[in-house]
Amino acid sequence: MDKKTNSTEFSKLLSGVQPLYNERVKPHRPPIKPIPTQRIADDRLVLDQLLACDPEEASFQSGDELSYLKNGYSQKLLKQLRRGSYSIEDEFDLHGLTLEQAKKHVRRFISDCEYDRLGTVRIIHGKGLSSPGREPVLKRHILGWLKKMDTVIAVSSATPRDGGTGAVYVLLKKK
């Protein structure tokens, strides 16, 4: 048999066949973003648990300078940070927040900065001039919160042009 005969026989076999139509359209699903949401949620939960208040944090006064350097890093980093030598890549103002709100916002801000691979940021905590008793409520806790964060290398009160003792510079690890 030749090809033409096979083709006509095949056509005869299919002559009564009706094509099936599927009116259903498969929905378009955007690709899932490769963001480790569960890991981020777990990290935030651990930070919430770690950011408990330490007794030493309650001793800061309005004019006191804050300073911290993680073990294993050069004092030169802290000195440069204190002088304002690093350019500030982002900042967050805690004015008007309660202690609990501030803790959550600080944690989220540092986590977001780590995700964005920022190096130096500024957090404005205020001097407590409008707080009851004119006490720096947030300032008492900010250093303790930041010390417990793995990504924080150094913390220093800002220079007068950037808020002085009412703000801190935070130097972060770039991963």
Describe the structure.
With 175 residues, the protein is of the alpha+beta class. Helix content is 35%, strand content 14%. It has five helices and five strands. It has helices at residues 3-13, 37-50, 75-83, 99-115, 137-147; strands at residues 67-69, 90-93, 120-124, 152-157, 167-172. Helix 4 (99-115) runs parallel beside helix 5. The chain is elongated, with a radius of gyration of 30 Å.
Fill in the keyword field for this structure.
175 residues, 5 strands, elongated, five-stranded mixed sheet, single chain, alpha+beta
Tell me briefly what this model is.
The chain is an alpha+beta fold and 175 residues long. Helices cover 35% and strands 14% of the residues. The chain has helices at residues 3-13, 37-50, 75-83, 99-115, 137-147; strands at residues 67-69, 90-93, 120-124, 152-157, 167-172.
- Note the gap between the termini: 72 Å
Compute the CA-based radius of gyration: 30 Å
Tell me the total number of β-strands: 5
Q: Choose one word for the global shape.
A: elongated
The spatial strand order of the largest sheet comes to 1-4-5-3-2
Structure class: alpha+beta
The helix content is 25-40%
The residue ranges in which pLDDT falls below 50 over 5 or more consecutive positions are: 55-62
N-to-C order of helices and strands: HHEHEHEHEE
Strand content: 5-15%
Q: For the residues shown, what is the average pLDDT?
A: 81
